Amino acid sequence: MTDAPPPASAAAAARAEGATKIYGSGDTEVRALDGVDVSFNLGEFTAIMGPSGSGKSTLMHCMAGLDTLTSGEVYIGATPLSVQSEKDLTLLRRDNVGFVFQAFNLIPTLTAMENITLPADLAGRPADAEWVDKVISTVGLTNRITHRPNELSGGQQQRVAVSRALASQPEIIFADEPTGNLDSTTGGEILAFMRSAVDEYGQTIAMVTHDPTAASYADRVIFLVDGKIVDELSDPTPDTVLDMMKSLGD
Amino acid sequence: MLRLTIKNLLDKKIRFALTTLAVIVSVASVVGVFVLTDSLRASFSGLAGDIAGGSDLTVRVAQDLGQEFDRPPFDEAFADGIDVVDGVDDVIPGVFSFNDTVIIDDDGEAIRPQGPPTLGFSWDPTTFFIAAGDAPDALGEFATDVSTAADNGLIIGQTYAIDGPTRQEDFRLVGTFRFGSPDEHTSLGQTMAAFELEQAQDFLNRPGQYDAIAVVVEQGEDVATVQAAIQAAVGQELEVVTSEVIEDENAEGFDEFISIFNNILLAFAFIIVFVSTFIINNTFQIVVSQRIRELGLLRAIGATGNQVARSVYFEALLVGLFSTVVGILFGLLLGQGLRGALNSLGFSLPAGPIELQTRTIVWAAAIGVGVTMLSAIVPARRSRTISPIAAIQNDQRLAGASLTRRLWVGGVMTLIGGALLVVGLFVASTTTNVLTNVAIGAVLIFIGVNTLSPSFARPVATALGAPIARLFGTTGEIARGNAARSPRRTASTAGALMIGLALVGMAGVVGSSLTKTFLNTLDNAVEADYFVQSSSGGFDPSVTFAEEIATEIDSLPEFDSVVRYRFAQSSMRIGGVDKDVFAADFDLVERHLDADIITGGLTDADPRGSIALHQDPAEDLGVGVGDTLTATFPDGETDELTVVAVFTDSSIFGNWLVDNDVWEAHFVRTGLAFASATVTGFSDDLPQAEQDALLEQAAAAIAPVAEQFPTIVAESRVEFRQSQQDQLNSFLAVIFVLLALSLVIALIGIANTLALSVFERTREIGLLRAVGMTRRQLRRAIRWEAVIIAVFGAILGLILGVIFGVAAVIAIPDTFISIVSVPYGQLVVYVLIAAIAGILAAILPARRAARLNVLDAISHE
Ligand SMILES: Nc1ncnc2c1ncn2[C@@H]1O[C@H](COP(=O)(O)OP(=O)(O)OP(=O)(O)O)[C@@H](O)[C@H]1O
Ligand SMILES: [Mg+2]
Fold this sequence. Notes:
The complex is a heterodimer of chains A (250) and B (861).
Chain A: E1 12-23, E2 30-41, E3 45-49, H1 56-63, E4 71-76, E5 79-80, H2 86-96, E6 97-100, H3 112-116, H4 118-123, H5 129-139, H6 154-167, E7 172-176, H7 184-201, E8 205-208, H8 212-215, E9 220-225, E10 228-234, H9 238-249
Parallel strand pairs in A: 3-8, 3-9, 6-7, 7-8
Antiparallel strand pairs in A: 1-2, 1-4, 4-5, 9-10
Helix pairs in contact in A: 5-6, 6-7
Chain B: H1 2-11, H2 13-52, E1 57-61, E2 74-75, H3 78-83, E3 88-94, E4 96-98, E5 102-104, E6 118-122, E7 128-133, E8 141-145, H4 146-152, E9 159-163, E10 168-179, E11 191-195, H5 197-203, E12 209-210, E13 212-217, H6 223-234, E14 238-242, H7 243-290, H8 292-300, H9 305-344, H10 358-384, H11 403-427, H12 431-452, H13 454-485, H14 487-525, E15 530-534, H15 547-554, E16 559-574, E17 577-584, H16 586-592, E18 597-600, E19 610-614, H17 615-621, E20 628-632, E21 638-647, H18 650-653, E22 656-659, H19 660-666, E23 674-679, H20 688-708, E24 712-716, H21 717-760, H22 762-770, H23 775-811, H24 824-851, H25 854-858
Parallel strand pairs in B: 6-11, 8-10, 17-22, 19-21
Antiparallel strand pairs in B: 1-13, 1-14, 2-12, 3-13, 4-6, 5-9, 7-10, 8-11, 9-10, 15-23, 15-24, 16-17, 16-20, 16-23, 18-21, 19-22, 20-21
Helix pairs in contact in B: 1-9, 2-7, 2-9, 2-10, 2-21, 7-10, 7-14, 7-21, 9-10, 11-12, 13-14, 13-23, 14-21, 14-23, 14-24, 21-23, 21-24, 23-24
């Protein structure tokens, strides 16, 4: 950690340099990521799009410290991930990274509130109560907070998951198709909530999505094809995203 | 469909291994016990033939009362009449003694193994075969068996002291012999001393008498004819039996011993089977619930409910068959291992061939396949109801029995079980009845409580988890939530531990009550100051020491009175029933032991014509002081005895007490089971310093006697109390160790359930790791979950155990246990042990969970 290279941009919450991930070898070799250079700037909401199998999830996992790269480097803030021990990675995830999956984000035996404060509890320190209250009221969960996941709707469960990611005020939140399982109205609520977290609290978010409307909530969209970043779009609208997708599809 | 099941089993090797483990342990334990006892029976039946010896007929006193070693001797003049009978080739008169002839080795230690008997004989050339030296043929000589000589370093030509039934004497060792056959010594660990006939008659206290005459029939003569002729010659006083009869009697004796042994071991084996059944059942429940999605998918593509259920049964069948085969193999090893273990505990079991009988294999299959199939019934029936929707639903659960039904079934079972237990303990009369009622009752209670327990597992687990949650925060909270989330699983996992701890708890209560009663008796009833008992008697009353020792102590000025005690089991027939009988010195015994005499007295009674008895038989027979009773003894004689006292404490003399004069008139055995002495001038009212001084003098005076006779130990009241307590404790310890085996099984069960739960919760574990739970925290969560489950089972078990124990203590006659004592401290220790067992059980599952790859775990289906 001491000899970490200076970050390319001081404003990056997380970035990848030459990120390459190869699954298998020989005939079965798959280059899920192929030299990806990307930087997620502080307080920016980035959407990641691309065809199925293009490496979106792999990128999320590797950047969140859930998986390791074959080559290249990922930094969370100024911390390079490749040199971290398993334990340090775990602590990094707990303290500096938030993650929202497509489904199954909550521990069934814990209440919504306990799920939200889980990372802080695991760290053995009190969650910032004021901040947590604020997050909960913003997300509109105040009166469901003592319920267990199986007593909540799918949308409510995802809101709890996003709240958990926000609660520890991580440097960056990675979300892999957080609205993939939801109808468009519920999905819209979640996205609006994420948008407001970026606007009001300066939270950094990177989100994978297949939905142009969802992508339009972001500040910027990057497009991934065959493990490479092929294009990028700022201030997207559903239409510009759709156009871009069409042009890439050709 | 069946192919799918097989593929499934092969695919999930860990699950398969965990499922089979419990079945294999059950099968192996039952097979092991059968193999051991069958092998023993085979070697013992060879031994029975060896002991019967090389003669054709045996002449002896007919006996129909008491133990074999109480068979009376007869006048040696009878031999003359047999010698002259036509067809008789050889006549070998013999005398024997049992458990009262003990060789003392060079170090001054008595050669008296724990368990196997010490035997004295007159020389018999048809059963003893010289290995080295010569047969004893003069006064002052003896020979011993090769293994006693080898084990104790006895050297031919050297002189050894031998304690006999009446006195100690020095003998020169002239030879060593093999018993039973010229080539191979047959040994059960017995110690043998053989003397020349006249020497034996003198030393073994058979003046002018024989115990038996062995007869060798001339070659070619008809044994039956000769038998009839001898019978005619000796008259009705004696009986003539063939060597086949003797062999059968010996075999029967061994058989009885092996059966007791077999039954005790089998009882433990079946406890293991019973405990395992819970585990197997639980495993199948989990396995089916893990496959719900897959089974739902099968239903969605057209499999019928029956087909699904059948696939569960088929899996059970495969598991059962596989485990039976493996279990039998392990059982064979276990049988050998048990033999070794028992030998190292002090038994001397003969080596011999390993016997795997068809009966054993049938049992193995019945248990292996039967228990597994039985365990699969409920899960299979539930699997029938899995709907196709389960395949696409995320939160899949097996439908459990409804709460009301559970309460009904469990409640009724518990009540019936309780009723049977009460009937067994308080109403049933024969031993078999008592045991069947109690066993079935206990099994029903266990199943009943286990059926009930899921209904309160959640609140109890939550409560037990509260301190853990407080102590370990979220980790503890997660452990607690997991223990409480599936009450049925928690309950049945805990069920195995419950049974083990119920048994341990019961043994604890009975043991503690026994000790309390015993010490209480000792404190209240004992007036004597010194006690003499066999140095290795244990609890075997047939082990005795020479009367001379009591006489010697009596002659010391430091002691002013000595009382001798003897005991015989089922050896006095009164009103057609064989009673245990105690003998003591009436004139002194009241100063030594207080049996709470309520009417009459012993001190001034006529020793030869009196009897004292407990209040209960006195009431049953309607007799009181002054009435007469007709008693028959092993020598066939009948006495009219006058009741001189009725007492109320049966814990000292049992129910029947006569004077040593009566004993000596009817029993051949003269050895003492026990003696007590009072110290001259000693009184509890003296100042402590004076008491100590007197006891010190007494100890100094008695020390040389104890040194001369290593067959005994002499202890002051305080020492005696301690040594008795120690003896009881070590006896109880053996039982605890055996019961602890069931804890090992329960431990496997917890490990099994946890491993399967971890597997089931893979995704959740992945999520926890993803949001920052460290491996250590994860291991801790699983560990505490195990502890909660274990403690739940332990508490449930101990509650049942205490209830069972108290019931048993009430049911056991007051002679043995009259005080109910619950060892609370011990119970707390058991809970702690259970908690530790939980921690141990969690080691592997926790490690496995911690090793899971986070991403794989999250995407786990
Ligand atoms: N564990 C693995 N082993 C081998 N190949 C893998 C593994 N995980 C992903 N891949 C491959 O890597 C490539 C990228 O996968 P990834 O899951 O990142 O795609 P994605 O863009 O998230 O697709 P989707 O939109 O369908 O979720 C795919 O070709 C996939 O088959
Ligand atoms: Mg993906």
